[in-house]
């Protein structure tokens, strides 16, 4: 069986994994800090794409 890992830091996930939505996909992270980091990165990418289109 393949171990599940955090989408942000690649640490192995346990029963306390946090699910977050990014770009319409649900990913799992190991802690609030990783959730915050991915949300900030996603927001930055979304803002950059909007600026380039506009």
Q: What would a concise description of this structure say?
A:
The protein has 54 residues and is α+β, with helices and mostly antiparallel strands. It has one helix at 32-53; strands at residues 18-22, 25-29.
Report what the structure shows.
With 54 residues, the chain is α+β, with helices and mostly antiparallel strands. 41% of the residues lie in helices and 19% in strands. It has one domain (1-54). The longest helix is centred in the C-terminal third of the chain and has 22 residues, at 32-53.
Keywords:
54 residues; two-stranded antiparallel ribbon; 2 strands; elongated
Mean pLDDT: 88
Task: Note the quaternary state here.
Answer: single chain
The whole-angstrom Rg is 13 Å
What is the helix tally?
1
Total number of beta strands: 2
**Beta-strand level of the residues, as a percent range?**
15-25%
Shape: elongated
Termini gap:
46 Å
Secondary structure: helix percent:
40-55%
Which structural class matches the secondary elements?
Answer: alpha+beta
Strand order of the largest sheet: 1-2
Biggest sheet character? 2 strands, antiparallel
Order of helices and strands: EEH
What is the number of domains?
A: 1
Unreliable runs: none
Topology of helices and strands:
Elements: E1 18-22, E2 25-29, H1 32-53
């Amino acid at each position: 069986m393949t171990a599940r890992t955090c989408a942000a830091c690649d640490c192995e996930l346990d029963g306390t994994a946090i699910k977050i939505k990014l770009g319409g996909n649900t990913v799992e992270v190991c802690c609030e800090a990783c959730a915050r980091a991915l949300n900030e990165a996603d927001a930055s990418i979304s803002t950059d794409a909007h600026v380039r289109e506009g």
